[in-house]
Amino acid sequence: MSNTPMAASPLTRAVLEIDEYVSGLGWDQPARLFALVDTAQLRAQEPSLAAQLGLEDESETVGLTPIEQDEVPSGKPLDEFLGTIAWPGAVVGCALTVERLMLPPSAEAQVPSGLDGARLAKWVAQHPERQEVRMTVAVLRDGSRESAVRLREKDSPTEVLTGPDLVPGLAEALAATFAD
Prior knowledge:
Layout: H1 10-23, E1 32-38, H2 39-45, H3 47-52, E2 64-68, H4 78-82, E3 91-102, H5 117-126, E4 131-140, E5 145-151, E6 161-163, H6 168-175
Antiparallel strand pairs: 1-2, 1-3, 3-4, 4-5, 5-6
């Protein structure tokens, strides 16, 4: 957590830790899913796993530990995949990183009407104002949310935007994985 502000909430720190980890892997990465577990509970209930993760000497008593899950299937739409997830009780939250192309709000008026998903994606990919972004979105069972957005052209830890409402649709989809 070298670039993570210690004054931030545990959820913000977890999101920034995940963003830092994924940024170290470079761009053009597949989506990555993480379970978020209570660090103190993990150390108490799974000491060998905590040791494997390097958490046995952590002095912090409040925090979240992200644990990367199996690979997100690339051939299945993300919303369909998320609809298949059920988390065990020890998981207090989850996070997902995805890379996408985005357009600035000024480009919305230029979008041709009647484009389906594939044609719209192709149109966005060819737009001169497109931006490649990596989004890390996390939610907790209690409804808390946090997001980090990193632009490829400003790929620096000091240029990461954070906030609970940056990617509301993805946050809703992740929150649904905790619905009964």
